[in-house]
Structure formats: structure tokens, C-alpha cells
Design a protein that fits this description.
The protein has 141 residues and is mainly beta. It has helices at 33-39, 130-137, and strands at 3-4, 7-10, 17-20, 23-24, 26-30, 43-49, 53-55, 60-63, 69-74, 80-85, 91-94, 105-110, 126-128.
């Protein structure tokens, strides 16, 4: 996995800042209904691993969004902060959170079978369906 060096960013109001010692040098898009409802379009994210440092935790609200993941936002301004896998504590942070500091490649689209027809991306990416994602992350009975 090609990684970028330490990156940091803050929410719109500056109450919460996140920094990561490394992040994947590529981004992904999630087309699930929850991500599209959360942000008004696909969730464009970079994987930042487990060691994300959060300053201003008193302004962070965690929403338990599924059996395997949670989402966070700033209580003060509403900025989306991260999507985090519960089991591994791996963070996916919106690519725009880091402003113009990064330009990762685009290599993955998930929940591709849930993508509406009113938009598409020109880049050729790996694509994963809803079923493939559930097989990877949903708790096994």
C-alpha cells in the first residue's frame, strides 16, 4: 500500500482536528444509500488506519450506523469527520477534510450496484457490490 506522510485537517469551525501518521495514497467512493444520505452524494474517502489523533473530542459525536461501523461528525458545525470500522478501528476520512493538501488516485468503488444512474466517474476502478462488502464486514452468525 502506497502511503502519504502525516496529514492533518480540521472541521469547518475548527473545533475538531484530525491527524494521521499515514494514509493510503488512493481514494474510494461508497455509493450505499446511507453514505449518499449522509453527504448528499457518494462518500469519497481515504483510508487512514487506526492511529488517527483527534483534538477537540468534546465536539465529536459518534453515530452507531451499522453492526460493523460508526460515523462521526462535529457537534458544532456538522462537518463529517470519519467512518470507522468497529472491529479494527480503521478510519476512512472524507478526502475533502484534508483540503487541497492531497491528490490521491481513485481506485475503488463500493456498493457499485447501489449507485444511482444520475452520476458516474470517468476513472476505471475496482468495483465491489453490496453483497461483497457484507461478506467482508458483516458479523457472522
Amino acid at each position: 500500500m502506497s502511503e502519504l506522510k502525516e496529514m492533518s485537517g480540521s472541521c469547518l469551525c475548527g473545533s475538531v482536528s484530525l491527524s494521521t501518521p499515514s494514509m493510503k495514497n488512493s481514494m474510494a467512493a461508497c455509493h450505499c444509500g446511507m453514505c449518499r444520505k449522509w453527504g448528499g452524494g457518494p462518500f469519497m474517502e481515504v483510508s487512514c488506519g487506526k492511529n488517527v489523533k483527534i483534538d477537540g473530542e468534546e465536539f465529536v459525536k459518534i453515530y452507531d450506523s451499522s453492526e460493523w461501523a460508526e460515523r462521526a461528525f462535529c457537534k458544532k458545525c456538522g462537518t463529517h469527520l470519519f467512518y470507522r470500522l468497529k472491529e479494527t478501528q480503521e478510519h476512512q476520512i472524507p478526502v475533502g477534510f484534508f483540503a487541497d493538501n492531497i491528490s490521491p488516485g481513485f481506485d475503488l468503488q463500493v456498493f457499485i450496484d447501489r449507485k444511482p444512474e444520475n452520476y458516474s466517474f470517468a476513472e476505471k476502478t475496482k468495483e465491489m457490490t453490496e453483497q461483497q462488502i457484507y461478506e467482508m464486514y458483516a458479523p457472522k452468525d
